[in-house]
Amino acid sequence: MKDTANSFSLVAALIATVVFAAAITVPVILMFLSILTAHYAQDDFLQALPKRLIMGLLALLISITTMMIAFSSTLYLWLHQPVYW
Fold first, then answer.
1. Among residues 34, 16, 36, 14, which one has the least CA distance to residue 24?
2. Cβ neighbours of residue 27 closer than 8 Å, sequence gap 6 or more
3. Tell me, what's the pLDDT at 22?
4. Is 34 exposed, middle or buried (0-12, 13-18, 19+ CB in 10 A)?
5. Structural domain tally of the chain?
6. What InterPro entries is this protein classified in (predicted)?
7. Residue 27 above 60 pLDDT?
8. 85 belongs to a structural domain
């Protein structure tokens, strides 16, 4: 679980540096950092850490989806502009 959180925090940090509106991505990074800095008690593995991982993955999915929507809408608007000579 620690390796998974480490990998996804790297992906979330890369998305935060690329996307202009990084307000969506910051909670993703914080969620994965909370997994990496957990005390790893036995009860954490049963409830707290899986919930944090699922919430982090959902937030990461939402941020990737909004990034793709923003990119494709910008590309659409840029390519479909009328050319004035």
1. 16
2. 59
3. 55
4. middle
5. 1
6. PGG_dom (IPR026961)
7. yes
8. no
Asked if residue 68 is part of any domain, the answer here is yes
Neighbouring residues of 76: CB distance < 8 A, sequence distance ≥ 6: none
Lowest mean per-residue pLDDT among 1-5, 14-18, 41-45, 47-51: 14-18
- In this structure, is residue 63 part of a structural domain? yes
Task: Judge whether 17 lies within some domain.
Answer: yes
Biggest alpha carbon–alpha carbon distance for the chain: 70
- Beta-carbon count within 10 A of 13 CB: 16
Domain assignment of residue 75, given as a range: 1-80
Whether the pLDDT of residue 3 is over 80: the answer is yes
Structure tokens at 63: 């941020």
